[in-house]
Design brief:
Largest sheet: 4 strands, antiparallel
Distance between the termini: 38 Å
Oligomer: single chain
Number of strands: 8
Strand content: over 45%
Structural class: mainly beta
Helix content: 10-25%
Length: about 110
């Protein structure tokens, strides 16, 4: 199912700046999804998407200049929430015609 018309989903992981583009897998140990439900005693992994971003919280704090403070400065920092926004793997199919066209023209 799509969320608000977008082919995205949220994962609860330690996502940091620079981890965009990381593959996301669903791993099932001791069971595997089937068309009829679940098969017990099996292990399976599925490539389900690609991490592309994540929400952050903002924080404000006081910066104290050293050694002799002459003014007050305020810093603003973004803190990670350890959630990640991922594009569904089905979106990768959008690249197939582009790659095929590139290979046709550039060999």
């Amino acid at each position: 199912a799509d969320y608000n018309g977008a082919k995205n989903f949220v994962v609860d992981i330690a996502a940091f700046g620079g981890s965009s583009g990381s593959p996301v897998f669903a791993y099932f140990e001791g069971m595997a999804p089937t068309d009829d439900g679940w098969a017990l005693g099996q292990t399976s992994a599925y490539f389900i998407g690609v991490l592309h971003s994540g929400p952050t919280l903002s924080a404000q704090g006081e910066v104290v200049p050293a050694p002799i403070p002459t003014s007050r400065q305020v810093s603003k920092t973004s803190l990670m929430m350890h959630l990640g926004y991922c594009a569904k793997v089905s979106l990768l199919n959008d690249f197939v015609p582009l790659v095929e066209r590139h290979l046709e023209t550039h060999g």
